[in-house]
UniProtKB/TrEMBL annotation, chain A:
InterPro entries: PurS, PurS-like_sf. Belongs to the PurS family. It is found in: Cytoplasm. Coiled coil: none annotated. Pathway: Purine metabolism; IMP biosynthesis via de novo pathway; 5-amino-1-(5-phospho-D-ribosyl)imidazole from N(2)-formyl-N(1)-(5-phospho-D-ribosyl)glycinamide: step 1/2. Keywords: ATP-binding, Cytoplasm, Ligase, Nucleotide-binding, Purine biosynthesis. Its EC number is 6.3.5.3. This is Phosphoribosylformylglycinamidine synthase subunit PurS. One of its GO terms (cellular component) is cytoplasm. It holds the Pfam family PurS.
UniProtKB/TrEMBL annotation, chain B:
Keywords: ATP-binding, Cytoplasm, Ligase, Magnesium, Metal-binding, Nucleotide-binding, Purine biosynthesis. InterPro entries: PRibForGlyAmidine_synth_PurL, PurL_linker, PurM-like_C_dom, PurM-like_C_sf, PurM-like_N, PurM-like_N_sf. It is an enzyme of class 6 (ligase). This is Phosphoribosylformylglycinamidine synthase subunit PurL. It comes from Kineococcus xinjiangensis. The keyword Magnesium applies.
Length: 89, 778
């Protein structure tokens, strides 16, 4: 069984209220030295068999059309999970 | 390159005023920024040289249709000509400020305004709608008020179009998401589907705020030496459109931005900003204040200076940035949300900054009010803008666009929905089936799927909300003083006859407010039309404004502000690619005690149903013609504004004296829809007879049920009040007719139109509530 991992992030120029909330909370809890936080999301897609280039291509298509909102988010990586076979993204 | 230092990339030439004077031949991309050749020439004349990139950015955005009202201004002056001194009696602040302010008595004032966020809501429905709500809330804050409620008027393409399935859920959750997070009740509005809004959804948001008379604040920068403070969120690349052309013009690709960027709202930041502003106001630390919306800093600085003494110096490099690679042009244009600008005396500035620090709101002193009449903007000590602010903000171009009644208008009006043209139901069985289809149709079905996503009761002051005719909120918790608001538009009526259609929308909102028991006081409007470059669209606009202004004068309610949204069209088929001309009218009324409000449905058995007003064969532009025949033609219903005034007066008196237990306005779908909604509101049926109505008005049962004649309200009168009620209507000369009685709330209860048909409420409810969930999910 293979697994594809997809990372989606808000576009760099887009306001990220969640990240802003986290960066505000960090020093209050004693975590100093962090000047910026941006929060994205990670998807794990499971497939029967190996993660082939075709599977990755299909996953990228899904990431760009369904898993992300192309107006405000970027798909930053589509890759096979650790140990799984297949070419990286 | 490093993104840590706020300085611009070395090596790139800053387009300073000095450089602009020395390089007159340097070409700027004025056309790509939407300016016309003569407009660019005028800027050169005003400045006596070519503009800098930053100046061009400012002029181009402030002279855009959206900010300058250049096509609509000549027509909007009509409102002033039709506003009498009598109408101004309750008006504390009129058109021109961020929002109008109305005196509602007991030392209280309210401010309210409706604004469009149409195009952004098509691009990115959630954020577009959310930032629309956020923007109008800041307008209300800028007047010194605490926002107390929001409303929204939404228009989408046909319900079964695939893109509608994308836009509707996004817009609805955006409106709900922002309003719910910030903790403001959404007390009403409207939703309408029509193919003309395909690709051009209309998202109009209204906010109302309350304050004491002495707390009113205005947007102007007066007093030489006073400081200009920007506070709230940091400035990022949000909403920067065409100005990226300038950025790439003056220096190479630097920032991460692939502009334009969608504006993203942060309601939690805005909530803090509201409390921070109110704290600043109550401590007396604010001389003038302005919110940052469209055109961002360009708009705030030039408007504040223009409305004040005229001189201002801004150090643009002091603006706190989210993205340090932004150029001066981009900083001036950014539409980052949740920002405000205040004018503060030097003596108060420390106290001001202490308050913003307390609320954890970032603030920066950008500059000061200067003597003279120039707005100077500096970037690291070099002057990039040196302009007379009035020429940017208030003396932009004004166009007398050609307008002409479209050739197709005669044919449209001649195509009346007569009995010969459109077959009508006649038998009881046919009328029953028509009623069920109508009440399930997209524009008449229950809005619960949408409004259940909005918090309607947060803050605990909402006393009426959707599905009642108007939203009512308590303003003074001691005395019960409150306001009622209704937001209405009818693009079909306006298409058939723009002047009458606009008046019908006004009359409906006015009637709805009175139906809830409130005395109508003032108006806000959002005028959504197609391209002003089309003479047919411009004619619709001119006619609608004229009609509206005359209607407001006749009803004695002044327009206090609002906005104009043009270019709502897709494609180049002229008038045919434009949206239905859609003036959305908000009317605000006052109730001395909100516990006297009148709901839209009945709940006691044995009360008497009266129909106020008379019914004519008026089906042009009606829901029946559209739902059953996809027909739009003929003339809209006739309107008698004197009758509307009388009707409102009687309704307000009825509410005050407790003569009616329920009142429901008749509009889209006519009497049939009013009976359905009045029954379903609390689940109590009704027995209705139409014979006397048909005989008095010379109509048949179909017309009685589905005509959309104006000036009609259905009321439920308790038996013990019937004599007083009758006497009052007779004395005032208001047409009133007993048409039925209410039934009890029970499983078997029905809507029974005697001699024609009966429908169990369970069956009606099933038809009425299934449509939106079926299209947009559980």
């Amino acid at each position: 069984m293979g697994r594809v991992v997809i990372d989606v992030m808000p576009k760099p120029e887009i306001l990220d209220p969640q990240g802003k909330a986290v960066v505000g909370a960090l020093p209050r809890l004693g975590f100093t030295g962090f000047t910026g936080v941006r929060q994205g999301k990670r998807f794990e897609l499971e497939v029967e068999g190996e993660v082939t280039d075709e599977v990755l291509a299909e996953a990228r298509k899904a990431a760009e059309t369904l898993l992300s909102n192309p107006v405000i988010e970027d798909v930053v990586s589509v890759r096979a999970a650790d140990g799984a076979a297949g070419a990286g993204a | 390159m490093s993104t840590d230092t706020p300085a611009r990339p070395s090596g790139a030439a800053l387009d300073t005023v000095e450089r602009a004077a020395a390089t007159p031949e340097h070409e700027l991309p004025w056309e790509a920024l939407g300016l016309k050749a003569d407009e660019y020439e005028r800027i050169r004349e005003i400045l006596g040289r070519r503009p800098t990139g930053a100046e061009l950015a400012m002029y181009s955005v402030m002279w855009s249709e959206h900010c300058s009202y250049k096509s609509s201004k000549v027509h909007l002056r009509t409102f002033g000509r039709h506003t009498t001194d009598e109408m101004k009696k309750h008006l504390m602040v009129g058109i021109g400020e961020n929002a109008g302010v109305v005196d509602i008595g007991q030392g209280w004032a309210v401010t309210f305004k409706v604004e469009s966020h149409n195009h952004p809501s098509f691009i990115e429905p959630y954020q577009g709608a959310a930032t629309g709500v956020g923007g109008i809330i800041r307008d209300i804050m800028a007047m010194g008020a605490r926002p107390v409620a929001v409303m929204d008027s939404l228009r989408f393409g046909t319900i079964d179009h695939p893109d509608t399935a994308r836009v509707v859920p996004g817009v609805v959750s955006g409106v709900g998401g922002y309003g719910n997070c910030i903790g403001l009740p959404n007390i009403g509005g409207e939703v309408f589907f029509d193919p003309s809004y395909q690709g051009n959804p209309l998202v109009n948001a209204l906010c109302v705020g309350a304050m004491k008379h002495e707390d009113v604040h205005l947007a102007n920068a007066r007093g030489v030496g006073n400081l200009i403070v920007l506070f709230g969120a940091r400035t990022g690349g949000d909403g920067i459109g065409g100005v990226s052309v300038l950025a790439s013009e003056t220096f190479e690709d630097t920032g991460p931005s692939k502009r334009p960027a969608v504006q993203v709202g942060d309601p939690f930041q805005e909530k803090v900003l509201i409390e921070c502003c109110l704290d600043l106001f109550s401590a007396g630390l604010v001389e003038g204040i302005q919110d940052l919306g469209g055109a961002g800093l360009s708009c705030a600085t030039s408007e504040l200076a223009s409305a004040g003494d005229g001189g201002m110096l801004i150090h643009l490099d002091r603006v706190p940035l989210r993205d340090s690679s932004l150029s001066p042009e981009e900083i001036l244009m950014s539409e980052s949300q949740e920002r405000m600008m205040a004018v503060v005396t030097p003596a108060n500035v420390d106290a001001f900054l202490a308050v913003t620090a307390k609320w954890d709101v970032e603030a920066a002193v950008l500059g000061e009010v200067t003597d003279g009449d120039r707005l100077l903007v500096q970037w690291h000590g070099e002057t990039v803008v040196d302009v007379p602010p009035r020429t940017v903000a208030h003396e932009g171009p004004v166009y007398e666009r050609p307008y002409a009644r479209p050739a197709s208008q005669d044919a449209l009006q001649a195509d009346a929905p007569t009995a010969e043209r459109l077959p009508r139901p006649a038998t009881g069985e046919e009328l029953r089936a028509t009623l069920l289809r109508m009440t399930a149709s997209p524009n008449l079905c229950s809005r619960a799927w949408i409004t259940d996503q909005y918090d309607r009761y947060v803050l605990g002051n909402t006393t009426l909300a959707t599905p009642d005719d108007a939203g009512v909120v308590r303003v003074d918790e001691e005395t019960g003083l409150g306001v009622a608001l209704s937001l209405d538009g009818n693009g079909r009526f306006t298409k058939l006859d723009p002047a009458t259609g606009a008046q019908l929308s006004l009359a409906e909102a006015y009637r709805n407010v009175a139906t809830a028991g409130a005395r109508p006081l003032a108006v806000t409007d959002c005028l959504n039309f197609g391209s002003p470059e089309d003479p047919g669209v411009m004619w619709q606009f001119a006619e609608a404004v004229q009609g509206l202004a005359e209607g407001c004068e006749a009803l004695g309610v002044p327009v206090t502000g609002g906005n104009v949204s043009l270019y709502n069209q897709t494609g180049d088929r002229g008038l045919d690619s434009a949206v239905l001309p859609t003036p959305v009218i908000g009317v605000l009324g006052v109730l001395d005690d909100v516990s006297r409000r009148t709901p839209s449905g009945w709940r006691e058995p044995g009360q008497v149903l009266y129909l106020l007003g008379t019914t004519r064969d008026e089906l042009g532009g009606s829901e029946w013609a559209w739902v059953e025949h996809r027909h739009l033609g003929g003339l809209p219903p006739a309107l008698d504004l004197e009758h509307e005034k009388l009707l409102a007066d009687v309704l307000v008196n009825c509410s005050r004296d407790g003569l009616v237990d329920a009142a429901h306005d008749l509009s889209e779908g006519g009497l049939a829809q009013a009976l359905v909604e009045g029954s379903l509101r609390f689940g109590a049926g009704a027995r209705v007879w139409l014979d006397e109505l048909c005989e008095r008005d010379g109509i048949d049962p179909f017309v009685a049920l589905f005509s959309e004649s104006a000036g009609r309200v259905l009321v439920a009168v308790p038996r013990e009040e019937e004599v007083r009620f009758n006497d009052m209507c007779t004395a005032r000369g208001l047409a009133h007719l007993r048409i039925g009685v209410t039934e009890e709330v029970s499983q078997e209860t029905r809507l029974d139109v005697q001699g024609l048909f009966a429908v169990p409420l369970a069956e009606l409810r099933e038809a009425h509530t299934a449509t939106l969930p079926a299209h947009f999910g559980g």
